[in-house]
Design brief:
This protein has about 130 residues and is an alpha/beta fold. It has helices at about 1-10, 15-20, 25-35, 45-50, 65-70, 85-100, 110-115, and strands at about 40, 55-60, 80, 105. It has a single domain (about 1-115), classed as Rhodanese-like domain (Oxidized Rhodanese, domain 1).
Length: about 130
């Protein structure tokens, strides 16, 4: 009984609803709109250096709070996040939405999807 109540609480929470409103973007959508997007790679330094979406900023998922002062200028801009599996980018998405960011999406398929689509990849650190 308690578990059902907790599930209902989570499903009905504003955080879950807010995250659902921001569906993922396909690789093609990101390619077409990349000049209007802030693309953020939330993986670790080594992962980023081995290959990332061209023009993506590197902001490890555990450094979001430290980057909020400069990131706040993008509160009303479209932000796209990605990692390797979606776990870290999903956490960052929830965190940013909670902080008042209005348009935060995830890259569908994350970095493996980008690579399997044969899209360009940049290598090296920022």
């Amino acid at each position: 009984m308690r578990i059902s109540f907790l599930v209902l609480m989570l499903i009905g929470s504003p955080l879950c609803v807010a995250a659902d409103e921001h569906s993922g973007m396909t690789q093609q959508q990101v390619m077409e709109q990349r000049d209007q997007l802030l693309i953020i790679d939330v993986r670790g330094e080594e992962e980023y250096a081995q290959g990332h979406v061209p023009g993506a900023l590197h902001m490890p998922h555990d450094q979001v709070d430290a980057n909020l002062p400069w990131l706040s200028e993008y509160k009303d801009k479209k932000i796209v996040l990605y990692c390797r599996t979606g776990r870290r980018s999903g956490m960052v998405q929830a965190q940013l939405l909670e902080k008042g960011f209005t348009d935060v999406s995830l890259l569908k398929g994350d970095m493996p999807g980008w690579e399997s689509a044969g899209l360009p990849i940049e290598k090296g650190s920022q």
